[in-house]
């Protein structure tokens, strides 16, 4: 089965490539938004903190559309006509974008709002990305000198251990 071996390796490489992806596109669609109404897109961000990026372009209709990033609880308040919070919001217009860190993990939504559209429906091209590399958290750029020495010593010891073990196995094989 010489041709069967590469497939598992390709699958493994694909998994590693996907795991290394730091930016994921969630939505790239056109939504019809009725006049004086809003629609939303669920963002279940149950893992690590992430930077949410969203942009929109009105393809036709209203010129007063805006986006808002909010928690799921705030969406429920919006539905009931109660005061609600937003994490980020764009200015009303034909296009716009927002960038906001979603922390802590939880349930978030992007709301496309056409309530200021003057009675006109809108066709809105919405794009949403999650950027896991740029979650807004400060980056650790350097280890302390003590930790650097520790990492080097442990790495050298592991390398020497592997080389010694491999050399013994090879020598036993050559002697037989």
Task: Characterise this structure.
- The chain has helices at residues 6-20, 72-79, 145-175; strands at 23-33, 38-45, 50-61, 66-71, 88-89, 95-102, 106-113, 122-131.
- The protein starts with 5 loop residues before the first helix and ends with a helix.
- The longest helix has 31 residues, at 145-175.
- It has two domains: 21-131, GOLD domain (Jelly Rolls); 141-171.
- It has 176 residues and is of the alpha+beta class.
- It has a four-stranded antiparallel beta sheet, with no helix packed on it.
- It is built from three helices and eight strands, in the order αββββαββββα.
- Helix content is 31%, strand content 37%.
- The model is unreliable at 1-7 (pLDDT under 50).
Draw up the topology in text.
Layout: H1 6-20, E1 23-33, E2 38-45, E3 50-61, E4 66-71, H2 72-79, E5 88-89, E6 95-102, E7 106-113, E8 122-131, H3 145-175
Which runs of at least 5 residues are low in confidence (pLDDT < 50)?
Answer: 1-7
How far apart are the termini? 29 Å
Helical amount: 25-40%
Mean pLDDT: 81
CATH fold-level assignment of the largest domain: Jelly Rolls
Count of DSSP H/I helices: 3
Please give the domain count.
2
Range of strand content: 35-45%
């Amino acid at each position: 089965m010489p041709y069967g071996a590469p497939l598992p390796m390709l699958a493994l490489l694909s998994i590693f490539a996907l795991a290394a992806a730091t930016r994921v596109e969630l939505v790239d669609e056109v939504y019809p938004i009725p006049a004086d109404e809003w629609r939303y897109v669920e963002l279940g961000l149950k893992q690590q903190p992430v930077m949410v990026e969203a942009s929109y372009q009105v393809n036709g209709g209203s010129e007063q559309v805006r986006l808002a990033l909010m928690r799921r609880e705030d969406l429920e308040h919006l539905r009931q006509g109660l005061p609600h919070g937003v994490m980020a919001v764009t200015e009303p217009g034909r296009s716009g974008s927002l960038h906001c860190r979603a922390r802590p993990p939880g349930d978030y939504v992007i709301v496309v709002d056409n309530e200021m559209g003057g009675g006109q429906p809108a066709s809105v091209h919405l794009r949403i990305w999650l950027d896991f590399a740029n979650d807004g958290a400060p980056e650790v750029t350097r280890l302390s000198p003590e930790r650097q020495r520790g990492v080097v010593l442990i790495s050298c010891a592991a390398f020497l251990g592997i080389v010694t073990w491999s050399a013994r196995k090879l020598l036993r094989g050559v002697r037989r």
